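Researcher: Quick test of sequence recovery. Tokens follow.
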């Protein structure tokens, strides 16, 4: 019987002879070109016209044992060596086995050196390959008496290595070819015997204990070269001689010309030379004696022409000279790194053999992790829906004994003990001790070491056996308990650490403690120890609060404790519900009220019909999966679809239908994204359900009530919010463990579940033709698939039927449904205490926003000491703890403008009704005019789609703001891989547009004090953009001069002179005008309670960090790092330089320069200057400038393209002249990243000054033979992204340091990357802290630490060149590595700027 399953895009045919004892499995792979090919070629029950329903990523195992023996598989590509031949090699096995690490998996053992270290050279296991004649003449057959070929040493068969060599020696006496030819044969034969040893050892350790082979199971072996016609009798009769002696004899002959031609065991293959005697693909790698590299036998083609050799030798010598010139220029500091030839770097640094080994090892590890994650998710889902039997069979079906060796070699090995631990705890609740013991046996079979959690589950089972119904008289098994405790001690676990090392659910912890105390009445577990202090030198002064007065709490009494408690209950209920309905703010047109009512009735009828059909379709498809599950045991979707009642899945599908119906008519998202998103929503619901079931939700709710009191206290006695929560965790030790990872699903599982539900949506949702649900009218699908070509890839997309889109628009949007993690919280978020715990109360939140395919950084962070990440976590907690409220006056004005058809000048998008009408065709039009009409139609259609998308986004933001208009709310925060911080709710947050920022205020107000009003005025003028290069005194004077306009804007925003509308940021300007008006009209200005946040923005912050790194005096002055009487404006400086260049070109007759006269403005090039330090290319800069030129009505649009190219080039040239130190550091970072990615085939990684590990997640897919796809670092992206990402990590570090110190200073702090917010009365304090932390940050040896990190990171990389040590190619690669080492130790030069001057710079952040 042949079954089909999928593994990462592969179609596998699995043949199984015995399900109970799966030993003979033959797997053949065929690459699936795409999903459509799979659907069209596979015909199996469970398949529909729209998809294949078995979305398992793992093999299918037949549940019914077969009695009929399978036929022998013929024509294997990988030959099997007979059992007797394995015994002959026993002497070598005894040398290998004791040295291998028994805790590692068989596959890794096979890939390891004898000392247990990973050996990349034998990464690809091979079957043994010997010449046919040798097998036929040497190995005994069934009738041959084997005793004469062996000697007996006790009970063990021994056959020495010298006997094998004598076979060759005797042959040399009969026929005497050239010594060089025989030398090649000796070396080749040595490799083949090592290959036999390695493969035989692999077969031995992977072979089930009860498996045995008869001597008749000998298979033919492929011939790798000319046959060695050797007989065993010659071997026995000849004298003993070793391989080394034979080589010495040959090398001493006259035919050996030089020592370089002698082939030794440690020589390597030059793949540029054609093989003659042996097919290189058949060669097997041999471990080097010092375990530093794996090399292949070198075969020199005898008739290779000297001309070809000389040409290749000359080419290699040329590369050597070029590399030496590079090194010399590096030593002389005359190297212009940006002029370096990329092709030369590729040639010089291309250690492809080592790179491919690293890539394949990384790919194998990734497959193993994904495999174990899939098993864990499947087992957990089965346990959640009370399907314990399938969960129990899963480890057995996929153990190393029962899974195909080809899959084991690819990495499909069970290595995660958590899979077993979850099963053990589930079985412990039923008292199934025998099944738990069987799981321990399975762990031993798969070489998975038990953890302390495994023994805890066993102890839980022992205690529950005495408590289960019907077994109340069962005594406690003291003997088994003593054995478990002894085993714990034997495994060197500390029993007292069972509370801190294990994660428990419900009452598991209490059951374990009771079981231990029955054996040891005096047992007392160690309390959970939590390190609370910083390990970062930059924050070491904050570790001791014993001698200090606790700092004031800036968030104290933001709400009464009783109100916070009520909102906490409401938030808890909302997260349990996992979504929220928000009333739309769209204004209804009274004229269309009747039509909307009629269409609303039709839509309700449709939705009622859809619910019934979706439920019926879901149950039908689920029944098909259930029937399929009864026949096979496989990791299918069935348990994921049984977690909730069918109504829950139907509700999710109905919400998805509404989202699709309200989407843009022109935009159709891909099925890949839609399915993954829908699966993610189901997973979030499952995570919340699991927390309720495990008792974690109840414990969080109990702890949170006490956290509210600490959050609302007047002083920060614990120092910060993380320590508050950690203190509560130490207090509430009973019950489930909270700091555990959520039961997340792999991306493939989410996508498959989403596909399953989307297939039901596509097949079951119908709409009547003519847009009326009248019976008898033909129904048509409400949604349909389309396929579009994106970058030469065909992608499936989903579109709603136009009739359905019109129906939703006619009805209007009355309410919007959002996932709970898409809206702000009603209470302070739970503080981040680790990479797993923090954010929303119940909903799962990621600490770092990473691609699903590259979780490496998250794994590195999880392995870090907890205190290393405390600065990052505390900064996130400080930002998350800031309470906000809505400025109702501004919100109402914005809603009125939105419902009054918007205003483009105020950044309020108009509705699609304001889009120009589509032009009509006229019969009298000629061909050119018709083409223009078609082009205009397409343009208007795209414009209409964009207008609708922008209008919907604004509707979402305003509706959420209106929903929270009477509430105080909080934004939970997380970060990207560089450490840049973002609010979790995507639609409405203070990182949004000017519209959103204008309606946000601090919930906690503060008196203005003596200087608060002045800072309000300065901030107002900063928002307008009228006085960019003026001092603060001039800005204050300007504000006083325009006080009448300010008050008029506050009193009559839409009917007055509208001075605020001419501002760069109009809505924030209006809000500030209203705040100033309220302040000046209050009885006491200094006592006026102000909620308005004042911003202090860095002056091109990226250039500020570059100037500090290079101690560049000119650069520091240009970006206000150096003090000045007036603020420097780098954008205006660049404009002046570009204008000078333009004037010169105009005089020389350049038409574009003449056309740009008067149009080189600050706004035109600002974005390009800002993003240049973040790695923008000339193409990107051209696009930025082109956008700005198109927004200038007076500029001739026909010249915009050429003008944007001209300005981009001039801007880059001027910036390089202004900031030479910046350019040098950028070049150093760029070249370093390129060498790392190309030489070591590794992603660039570093650690920020506050301890955050950063790994660039840029990879590319490479295809290998056999349809295998691997991922390796994308050297181009790694190189281009490193400078901007490194600077971004520095500006995020500066923000984190500032936020932590602001909390200790007792002031409110919020940020938008390099823009810091606080109350007007605290601006001066925040500015001082900002400058001090910038100085402290850059007093660290940042570039020196970075270079040391790179040297330390790659010093363990051995030189695994595929070329001989004496070849020119080897020298080229060695010089390239030295070039990288020298590059990282020779830092860019520094200037003489005194960085402490930044403390006196008023306009550093202003």
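Model:
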């Amino acid at each position: 019987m042949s079954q089909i399953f999928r593994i990462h895009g592969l179609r596998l045919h699995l043949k199984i002879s015995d399900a109970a004892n799966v030993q003979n499995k033959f797997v053949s792979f065929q690459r699936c070109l795409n999903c459509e090919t799979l659907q069209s070629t596979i015909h199996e029950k469970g398949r529909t016209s729209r998809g294949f329903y078995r979305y398992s990523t793992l093999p299918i195992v037949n549940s019914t044992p077969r009695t009929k023996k399978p036929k022998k598989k013929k024509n294997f590509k990988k030959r099997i060596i007979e059992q007797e031949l394995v015994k002959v090699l026993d002497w070598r096995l005894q040398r290998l086995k004791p040295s291998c690490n028994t805790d590692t998996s068989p596959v890794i053992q096979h890939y390891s050196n004898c000392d247990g270290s990973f050996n990349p050279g034998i990464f690809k296991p091979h079957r043994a390959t010997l010449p046919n004649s040798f097998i036929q003449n040497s190995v005994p057959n069934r009738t041959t008496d084997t005793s004469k070929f062996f000697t007996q040493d006790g009970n063990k068969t021994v056959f020495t290595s010298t006997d094998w060599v004598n076979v060759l020696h005797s042959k040399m006496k009969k026929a005497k070819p050239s010594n060089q030819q025989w030398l090649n044969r000796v070396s080749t034969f040595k490799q083949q015997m090592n290959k036999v040893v390695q493969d035989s050892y692999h077969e031995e350790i992977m072979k089930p204990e009860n498996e045995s082979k008869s001597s008749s199971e000998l298979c033919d072996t492929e011939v790798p070269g000319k046959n060695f016609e050797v007989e065993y009798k010659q071997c026995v009769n000849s004298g003993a001689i070793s391989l080394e002696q034979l080589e010495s004899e040959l090398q001493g002959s006259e035919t050996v010309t030089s020592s370089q031609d002698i082939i030794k065991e440690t020589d390597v293959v030059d793949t540029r030379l054609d093989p003659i005697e042996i097919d290189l693909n058949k060669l097997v790698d041999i471990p080097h004696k010092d375990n530093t590299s794996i090399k292949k036998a070198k075969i020199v083609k005898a008739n290779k022409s000297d001309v070809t050799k000389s040409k290749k030798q000359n080419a290699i010598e040329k590369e050597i000279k070029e590399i030496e010139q590079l090194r010399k220029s590096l030593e002389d500091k005359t190297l212009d790194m940006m002029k370096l030839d990329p092709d030369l770097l590729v040639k010089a640094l291309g250690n492809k053999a080592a790179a491919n080994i690293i890539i394949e090892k990384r790919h194998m590890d990734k497959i193993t992790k994904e495999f174990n994650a899939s098993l864990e998710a499947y087992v957990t889902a089965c346990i959640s829906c009370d399907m314990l039997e399938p969960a129990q069979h899963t480890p057995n079906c996929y153990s190393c004994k029962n899974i195909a060796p080809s899959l084991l070699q690819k990495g499909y090995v069970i290595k995660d003990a958590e899979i077993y631990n979850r099963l053990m705890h589930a079985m412990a609740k039923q008292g199934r001790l025998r099944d738990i013991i069987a799981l321990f046996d399975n762990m031993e079979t798969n070489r998975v070491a038990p953890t302390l959690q495994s023994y805890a589950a066993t102890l839980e089972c022992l205690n529950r056996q005495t408590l289960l119904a019907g077994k109340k008289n069962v005594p406690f098994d003291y003997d088994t308990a003593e054995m478990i405790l002894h085993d714990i001690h034997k495994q060197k676990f500390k029993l007292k650490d069972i509370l801190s090392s294990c994660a428990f659910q419900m009452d598991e912890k209490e059951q374990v403690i009771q079981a231990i105390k029955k054996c040891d009445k005096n047992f007392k577990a160690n309390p959970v120890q939590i390190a609370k202090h910083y390990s970062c030198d930059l924050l070491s002064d904050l570790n001791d609060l014993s001698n200090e007065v606790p700092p004031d709490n800036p968030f104290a009494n933001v709400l009464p404790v009783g109100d916070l408690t009520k909102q906490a209950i409401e938030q808890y209920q909302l997260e349990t519900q996992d979504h929220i309905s928000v009333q739309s703010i769209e204004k209804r047109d009274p004229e269309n009220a009747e039509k909307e009512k009629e269409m609303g009735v039709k839509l309700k009828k449709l939705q009622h019909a859809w619910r019934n059909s979706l439920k019926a379709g879901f149950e039908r498809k689920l029944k098909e999966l259930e029937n399929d599950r009864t026949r096979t045991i496989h990791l299918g979707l069935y348990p994921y679809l049984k977690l909730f009642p069918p109504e829950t899945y139907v509700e999710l599908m109905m919400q998805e239908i509404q989202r699709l119906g309200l989407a843009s008519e022109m935009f159709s998202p891909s099925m890949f994204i839609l399915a993954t998103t829908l699966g993610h929503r189901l997973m979030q619901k499952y995570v919340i359900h699991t927390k309720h079931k495990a008792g974690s939700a109840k414990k969080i709710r109990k702890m949170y009530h006490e956290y509210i009191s600490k959050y609302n206290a007047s002083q920060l006695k614990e120092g910060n919010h993380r320590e508050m929560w950690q203190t509560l965790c130490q207090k509430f030790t009973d019950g489930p463990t909270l700091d555990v990872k959520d039961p997340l699903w792999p991306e493939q599982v989410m996508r498959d579940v989403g596909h399953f539900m989307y297939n039901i949506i596509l097949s079951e949702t119908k709409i009547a033709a003519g847009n009326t649900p009248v019976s008898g009218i033909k129904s048509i699908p409400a949604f349909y698939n389309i396929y579009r070509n994106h970058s030469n890839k065909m992608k499936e997309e989903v579109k709603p039927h136009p009739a359905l889109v019109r129906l939703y628009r006619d009805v209007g949007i009355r309410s919007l449904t959002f996932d709970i993690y898409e809206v702000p919280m009603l209470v302070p978020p739970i503080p981040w205490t680790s990479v797993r715990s923090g954010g929303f109360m119940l909903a799962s939140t990621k600490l770092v926003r990473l691609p699903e395919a590259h979780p490496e950084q998250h794994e590195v962070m999880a392995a870090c000491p907890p205190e290393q990440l405390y600065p990052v976590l505390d900064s996130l907690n400080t930002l998350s703890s800031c309470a906000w409220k809505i400025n109702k006056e501004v919100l109402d004005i914005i809603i009125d403008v939105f419902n009054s058809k918007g205003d483009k000048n105020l950044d309020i998008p108009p509705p699609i009704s304001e889009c120009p009408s589509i032009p009509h065709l006229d019969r009298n039009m000629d061909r050119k005019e018709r083409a223009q009409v078609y082009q205009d139609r397409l343009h208007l259609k795209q414009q209409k789609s964009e207008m609708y998308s922008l209008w919907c986004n604004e509707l979402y933001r305003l509706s959420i703001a209106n929903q929270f208009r009477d509430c105080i709310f909080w934004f939970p925060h997380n970060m990207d891989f560089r450490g840049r911080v973002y609010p979790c709710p995507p639609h409405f947050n203070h990182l949004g547009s000017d519209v959103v920022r204008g309606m946000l205020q601090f919930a906690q107000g503060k008196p203005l004090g003596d200087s608060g009003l002045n800072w309000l005025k300065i901030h107002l003028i900063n928002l307008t953009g009228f006085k960019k290069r003026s001092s603060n005194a001039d800005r204050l004077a300007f504000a006083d001069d325009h006080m009448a306009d300010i008050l008029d804007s506050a009193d009559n925003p839409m009917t007055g002179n509208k001075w605020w509308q001419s501002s760069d940021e109009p809505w924030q300007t209006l809000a500030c005008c209203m705040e100033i008006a309220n302040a000046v009209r209050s009885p006491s200005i200094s006592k006026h309670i102000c909620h308005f946040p004042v911003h202090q923005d860095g002056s091109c912050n990226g250039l500020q960090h570059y100037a500090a790194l290079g101690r560049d005096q000119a650069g520091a002055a240009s970006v206000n790092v150096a003090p000045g009487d007036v603020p420097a404006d780098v954008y205006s400086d660049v404009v002046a330089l570009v204008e000078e260049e333009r004037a010169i070109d105009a005089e020389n007759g350049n038409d574009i320069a003449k056309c740009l006269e008067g149009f080189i403005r600050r706004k035109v090039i600002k974005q390009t200057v800002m993003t240049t330090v973040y790695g923008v290319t000339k193409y990107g800069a051209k696009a930025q400038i082109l956008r700005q030129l198109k927004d200038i009505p007076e500029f001739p649009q026909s010249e915009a393209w050429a003008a944007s190219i001209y300005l981009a080039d001039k801007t880059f040239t001027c910036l390089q002249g202004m900031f030479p130190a910046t350019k040098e550091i950028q070049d150093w970072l760029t070249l370093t990243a390129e060498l790392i990615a190309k030489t070591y085939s590794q992603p660039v990684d570093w650690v920020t000054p506050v301890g955050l590990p950063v790994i660039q997640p840029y990879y590319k897919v490479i295809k290998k033979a056999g349809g295998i796809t691997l991922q390796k670092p994308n050297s181009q992206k790694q190189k281009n992204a490193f400078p901007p990402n490194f600077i971004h990590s520095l500006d995020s570090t500066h923000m984190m340091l500032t936020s932590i110190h602001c909390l200790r200073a007792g002031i409110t702090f919020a940020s938008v990357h390099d823009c810091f917010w606080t109350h007007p009365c605290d601006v001066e304090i925040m500015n001082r802290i900002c400058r001090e932390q910038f100085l402290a940050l850059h007093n660290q040896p940042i570039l020196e630490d970075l270079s040391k990190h790179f040297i330390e990171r790659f010093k363990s990389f051995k030189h695994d060149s595929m070329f001989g040590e004496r070849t020119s190619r080897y020298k080229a690669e060695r010089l390239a590595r030295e070039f990288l080492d020298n590059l990282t130790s020779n830092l860019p030069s520094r200037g003489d700027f005194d960085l402490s001057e930044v403390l006196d710079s008023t306009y550093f952040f202003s």
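Residues 574 and 885 are 19 Å apart (CA to CA).
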